[in-house]
Every structure is written in structure tokens, then in C-alpha cells.
Automatic annotation (TrEMBL), chains A, B:
Occurrences of domain Aminotransferase class I/classII large (ranges): 41-385
One GO term of the biological process aspect: alpha-amino acid metabolic process
Subunit structure: Homodimer.
Similarity comment text for this entry: Belongs to the class-I pyridoxal-phosphate-dependent aminotransferase family.
Name of the protein this chain belongs to: GntR family transcriptional regulator
Phylogenetic classification of the source organism: Bacteria, Bacillati, Bacillota, Bacilli, Lactobacillales
Cofactor: pyridoxal 5'-phosphate
Annotated GO MF terms: pyridoxal phosphate binding; transaminase activity
Alphabetical UniProt keywords: Aminotransferase, Pyridoxal phosphate, Transferase
Gene3D superfamilies: Aspartate Aminotransferase, domain 1, Type I PLP-dependent aspartate aminotransferase-like (Major domain)
Length: 396, 396
């Protein structure tokens, strides 16, 4: 059999990030590479109780086919969640997807043709790059600093690419950098989106997990012209295994999303939706988020202290006020893989920066995750990573 | 805001089938239109027990991110299921998807470019038509009779379209016709797929629900050359709300499916997968399938008897040996919508045949579902439908 694949299928089976995560899964290896929530905080008992109620009260509905838009009970619940982000809306503006990843996928499918320009933060969420690329995207990366995407660089990108279809941004505790876009830049981004009439895809998986600084309004909450599509998820505040994400957009767009969703997988798991809705009815999600925030903050502080103590001079890093990631820049390194290899030789894993860039990469960068490593182990891992960095810097 | 949608987005928001199902959802209306399993047979108690075990024994894993390929426990379980279809394989040949719909979506994404030819049964599953069209498919329909796709017509289609990328078929209890492809045609289809080197997508959601005739081997079980991709699902034998489907294919293809799946939604709901695996461990699925088969058979017989009693002479229909659907052909009707309207005026809903065809339709055809209407109501519904048909036939 000769296979004739579409142009969307990557020619190579090489999956560098998959390979990294496989290596990082070795129990000998201390992994700062993944992006997993701390499983010890999953409210297993409470989810079980919610499931019991669902099976007792609406078992048949939870096992039957459902609406492509999602069950009304859960769309209703999510209106309270997005209020925290400053978004006042109604259930007609909300669709549930099989995790935020599907929201990104459907957005790519809806807005991109072969060669369409997507403007992304440099660096950005790597699986968004994969999925946009599969729909023919050409990427234009916009440089960032500690205040998020640089707005002069964004305007230049828009001037050079007036036909750009999407600006994809994770404004709060960005993946992979952990950086947060300032309020003034948020406002400027909206002005530019309006001026150049480009859709903005605002991805906010981490925003609720803040331990420092002030809550900033989401782009969507300040959007007066319908330019912003907002995506949220239960993956970081409840459980990623349930694959529950949502899109908030104009009803006209929700109609299109719902049609594309129907083609993609008919609808999101009914049982998971009912359980989540019941969990919200029975529990205070804010109490649970406070627990997550407190633990991740503790782990982040330990990581930061160890970095300050052990990392060689000249190495810089972001200073996240929440979320799960931080971004490290090692000066004078041309091949980031060398850093990865040196770390792995000491049984520590990180994700080299390259796959996070739409086109040109910044060498010597990598992402570290702190949410999924026990606080007793972090310092030792950072110490060994510091030795690896030192070795590579010495060689240059 | 001006929206610039991709070419994949249908220009019109009109969703004829959605509109039909909405009308059919009116409690006054007796609906033979949908395609829902009988919810009173969902094993709610047993699924609850399985869920309890999962929460007690592996709650954290069930709420955490998982592998794009699916959990090994469930892939292992499914090997026994596909053995019933004559497929002897191993877990490396299996990937789990968010329902069969996603298996179809990923197949379209992997194999179709703008203008690629997909050969389909005429008529065929309408949401497959939607999804293949969204990836640029051009359809070539192959006529059917009561023995399934006509093989001389298939060979002509292959000769005319040597670059065809896919043959999509539902060989057993087809949707929408309820027809089953004979063994000799199955063998011929495989010969043709091999001769013209075209992939076959074998969709088998209904195969287990057989009350008459002999089990026929799946195409995949007779495929010696890797031309067949097989898709199964738990939607019709356990619960569609869980969105659990699987693909069986060569490991080389499973690798590509897994990459596409990762872009689409990272992975299938972990909790649903663990619950399903535990359900299979605790229960005999064959006993449950026997219950489903017995009830659907009863309903189908009542429908068939009523059709024989009330439908006007000249109206023909398929004779399903299992599954959920039958197909009716009313002679001399040019506009099937008239039939639908006449039935709805008597508070009965069916699905007019048109959307099931890739290109040219056969007027006067419609699909009836019997799995989701209580046996006490079927005869009355068929009687009213017969009156509607009579009215339309008289007018012609």
C-alpha cells in the first residue's frame, strides 16, 4: 500500500517534544519539562461525589448524545467563571469544546487557508503552532519582553501583513514564558486589532492561578467591537483529564464553531460535562483554586531561590506572578539541544526553546515547569541543571 | 468586525438536518428522525459502579492528562471486541478517538487535499459527507442495492478516478439504509482497493447489533495488504455520551493518527476511558449487547409489520438484519421535502434522503429510525406516516 497523505500531514514522524516527554517520563529523571498540574491536588473525592449525583439524577442524559454547543447547565456555570475575567455575557456566547486544544483546532479550521498569516508571540504555545501549521498557516512572530508582546513590533507586523487572519496570544502567565501582558499593552493590542481589523484569539488557561500582582482584565472584557475570541479551560483549575474547554465569542461565531465542532466530534463528552456542572454546584471552585495557587507559589519560590543560588551569572529568567512556567535564557549558546543533553546527563529534563517559535528561534532558551515537582526535590534538580548550564557556558 | 473565514466554513448557516432534529424534538412529534440509542437500556448502575472503582483505585490518573493514543487498559480491552469482527491484532494497531466522528475527521484531515476524490456509498452517513467536504473532498457516489455497494459501479468509479484517496463504506447495517454488504462483494471490494491502490475506511458502528442472518467478516479482517482502516465505537453498544471510538490500522498509520489527534484535542477524555475499561472488566458486554439487540429487533418488527399493513402499494424499503435504520423509497415523488412536511403536519418526523447523498440525490427516499421509539407507539406513528405518503402520492 502506498499512502497518499494530505499536505497537512507532517512529512516526518519525528516528534521532538514527544521524544523529550518520553525521556522525561523515566522515573530516574527529574522533569521540569512537562506541563502537568499537580495530581495530588485533584479533588478526587469531590468529583466522585458529583459523579454519584449525576448517575443518580440524570444518568441517562449523561450517557446519551448531546448538543454540539454543550449542556446548558455547564454553559451557565461558566458565565460566573468568565465574570472573574471581567466578561459579562450569556450562554448564547459560549460553546464547550473537547479541551482548549480543540478550541484552537476549530479556530484554525475556521479562519485559515493555505498561506494565511497568524501573528504569534515569540515564543508561543507549541501545539498551537502545530495545529495552525496543519491548516496552512504562515507565522509572523512578535518579540516579547517582560511586559508581554511588544506593541511597536505588533504594529509593524500588522502593517507588513494587512491580510493577517489571527493574532494568537496568551496574555496572562504565558506558555512558555510565564510573562503577563500589561494593561496598557492590552489596550493597545485591542486598538491595533480594531485598526487593522484582525481577529484576536485570547487563550487563558492559567489566568486564575495568580499569587502576586493585580488581576488584569482579559482582552475580551475590553473588546467593544467583537474582535476577540476568548478561550478558557477547566484543565488547570479542576482536571485536564475531563477535556473541558470553552469558547466565548459573538453568537454569529458560536454558530460557526458549533457547526465545525459537530463535524469534528459531534459533541463534548456528556458525562464529563454533567460531572463538572455538578462539581461546581456542590463546591466552591475559588477555595480549590486558592489551594492550587498556594502550592504552585511555594514550588515557584523554591525554584526561584535555587536559581538565584546556583545558576551562573548572566543567565536570565522571567518572573511569573502565577501559572506554571518560567523561561530561562542562557547567553552565548547557539545549540539549545546541547543544554538539554547536558541536563539529561544529570537526570534533569527541560524543554529546549526551539519548538515554541513560529519561525526564527532564540537559541539558549528553555522552559521550566514547577507545578508538577514536589517541593522537596526542586532545589536538587535546579542545582544539577545549574551544573549543566555551567558546563555548556564554559565550553563556548 | 469583518470575518474572513476559511474555505472550509460553509457559506450558509442553514443546517437542514439540525432544523429537522429540532422540529423532531418537539414532544408532540413522534420522531423516527434521530439516530439515538434507546436510553432506557444504558447500564447506568453498572457504569456508576465502574466509575466508583476508578475513583477509588486510579482517581488521579483518570483526572490527569493522558496519551494521545489512549490508555493501554482500554486499547487492550478493545482487542477482544474487534476479534468478534475477525480482526486479530495488538494494541500497537489501535488508537482511541473522541467518538467515531473524530476518527472520520482525522482521516479526512490526513488523506484529503482540495479536490481529492472520496468514493462513497449512495446514500451514506451525512456527517461524514460534511467533514470530508470541509477538507476539500469531491464525492463520487456508488449506487447500492440490497446487497450493498454495487461492485461494477465501484470499479467504474475507480477507473474514472484513479487518483481517488478514499473509499468510505459502512458495510454492515449501513446508515442510512440498514443494508449489509454481502461476503462476495466484501471480497471484491478488497480486490478492487488493492488493484487500484486506494485506502478503504471501514466504519462499523452497528455491526454488533444483529438479530438475523450470519455474522460477516469485516473488511479489515480479510485485508492482507494494509488497505483498510477500521473504525469502531462504544456509542451503540455502551453509551454515546462517553465519546469513545477507535481506529485499527497499521502502526505506521496509527503514528500519523496520533500526531493529528494530538493537534485536534491532545487526547480522549481520561475519565471516560478508565470507566469504560473498568466497565468491561466488571461486566459481560455480550449480555448487554444481547439486550439491545432484542429490544431493537422487537421495535423493528413492529415497524415492519405496520409498514406492510399501512404503506401504499409501490413504496419499497430495505430489510435490515440489525442496526438502527431503514430506508424507504416512495415512487414518483420529486421533492422529498413535501413528504417531510406532510408527515410533520401529522406530527411524525423522518429524515428526507437528500443530505445523505454526496452529489446527485434519489428523490422520494427517507430514513427511519426504530431504536428510539417505544414499541407501544410505533404502529400509530407508521399509520400517520402512511397517510402522509398516500396524500403525496395521490397529488402527483
Amino acid at each position: 500500500m502506498t499512502y497518499h497523505f494530505s499536505n497537512r500531514v507532517p512529512k516526518s514522524d519525528v516528534d521532538p517534544v514527544g521524544d523529550i516527554l518520553k525521556v522525561a517520563g523515566d522515573p530516574k529523571v527529574m522533569s521540569f519539562a512537562g506541563g502537568l498540574p499537580a495530581p495530588e491536588l485533584f479533588p478526587v473525592e469531590q468529583v466522585k461525589r458529583a459523579a454519584d449525583t449525576v448517575f443518580e439524577q440524570k444518568g441517562q442524559a449523561a450517557l446519551q448524545y448531546g448538543s454540539s454547543k454543550g449542556i446548558p447547565e455547564l454553559r451557565q456555570v461558566i458565565l460566573d467563571r468568565v465574570k472573574v475575567e471581567g466578561i459579562e455575557t450569556d450562554a448564547d456566547h459560549v460553546m464547550f469544546a473537547t479541551g482548549s486544544q480543540q478550541s484552537i483546532d476549530l479556530t484554525g479550521k475556521m479562519f485559515l487557508d493555505e498561506g494565511s498569516v497568524v501573528i504569534v508571540e515569540d515564543p508561543t504555545y507549541l501545539t498551537a503552532v502545530d495545529v495552525f501549521r496543519s491548516y496552512g498557516a504562515r507565522f509572523v512572530g512578535v518579540a516579547m519582553d517582560e511586559e508581554g508582546m511588544k506593541m511597536d513590533a505588533l504594529e509593524l507586523a500588522l502593517q507588513d501583513n494587512p491580510e493577517a487572519r489571527l493574532i494568537y496570544t496568551i496574555p496572562t502567565f504565558q506558555n512558555p514564558t510565564g510573562r503577563t501582558m500589561t494593561l496598557s499593552r492590552r489596550k493597545r493590542l485591542l486598538e491595533l486589532a480594531e485598526k487593522y481589523d484582525v481577529m484576536v484569539l485570547e487563550d487563558n488557561p492559567y489566568g486564575a492561578i495568580r499569587w502576586e500582582g493585580e488581576n488584569l482584565p482579559s482582552l475580551k472584557s475590553m473588546d467593544k467591537t467583537g474582535h476577540v475570541i476568548y478561550m478558557g479551560t477547566l484543565s488547570k483549575i479542576l482536571a485536564p483529564g475531563l477535556r473541558l474547554g470553552w469558547v466565548v465569542a459573538e453568537p454569529e461565531l458560536i454558530k460557526k464553531y458549533t457547526m465545525m465542532k459537530q463535524s469534528a466530534d459531534l459533541h463534548t463528552d456528556s458525562l464529563a460535562q454533567y460531572i463538572a456542572a455538578e462539581y461546581f454546584a456542590q463546591n466552591d471552585i475559588n477555595e480549590h483554586i486558592a489551594k492550587i495557587t498556594s502550592l504552585y507559589h511555594k514550588r515557584e519560590q523554591i525554584m526561584m531561590n535555587a536559581i538565584d543560588k546556583y545558576f551562573p551569572a548572566g543567565v536570565t529568567h522571567s518572573n511569573p506572578e502565577g501559572g506554571m512556567f518560567l523561561w530561562v535564557m542562557v547567553p552565548g549558546v547557539n545549540d539549545t539541544q546541547v543544554l538539554f543533553d547536558a541536563a539529561l546527563a544529570r537526570n534533569v529534563a527541560i524543554v529546549p526553546g526551539d519548538p515554541f517559535f513560529g519561525n526564527e528561534t532564540i537559541p539558549g532558551t528553555f522552559r521550566m515547569n514547577y507545578s508538577n515537582t514536589h517541593e522537596d526535590k526542586i532545589e536538587d534538580g535546579v542545582k544539577r541543571l545549574a551544573e549543566a548550564i555551567e558546563e555548556v557556558m564554559d565550553k563556548k
